[in-house]
Amino acid sequence: MTLLQIVLLVAGGILSGAFVVLLIGRPYVFRLRRRLLTDPTSGLPNFEGFHRYMKRHPHEKFMLFLLDLDDFRRFNHLGYDCGDEVLKRFATKLSHELSGFAFCARYRLGDEFLVVAREYELDKVRKALEKINNEVVYKNDPVHFTFGVASVNSIDADGCNAIRIAHDILISKKVAQ
Fold it and tell me: Looking at residue 88, what is its pLDDT?
């Protein structure tokens, strides 16, 4: 056997091995990617998922809502599993009510959520949020939230500046309550 034949055999083996790895590993890669972009508690996209969404829509004009659950500690004091259940119920209701016209994500690891909608959907989102604010209940204890809203422009393509503005508005609302 010549050196050229050995090299061709090895190269063929490497290529076929790479093909098998891609064929078998592809579903694993998709599952891994989903896990990296999804919050495990709420099932919503996480902050990285939010950034990916914003990167896919760089030139659109959005309104960003930052929602913060009011007095969420009272649920965690009952046990973290209770707090997790509240987050799940809230996330399910939020994504269901805003499905088709807004993107929802969990913000960081606390009790805050992001909602992104096109500017022309602003009134529709506000009405849906008002409805949600009166419908999520855990063990006869209503789950309310406060939100701030800000515009996302092309300069703030990742939404970070809008999050800061929405956060400031949210805090001023909470202080006023």
Answer: 96
Compute and round to an integer the Cα radius of gyration of the chain.
Answer: 22
Own/partner pairs for 47-51, CB < 8 Å, 24+ apart?
Answer: 47/105, 47/106, 47/107, 47/108, 47/114, 49/105, 50/103, 50/105, 50/107, 50/114, 50/116, 50/159, 51/158, 51/159
Are 142 and 134 within 8 A, CB to CB?
yes
pLDDT at 177: 79
pTM of the model: 0.82
Tell me the average pLDDT across 132-155.
91
> Residue for token digits 């649920």?
75
Collapsing DSSP to helix, strand or coil, 42 comes out as coil
125, 117 contact by CB (below 8 A) = yes
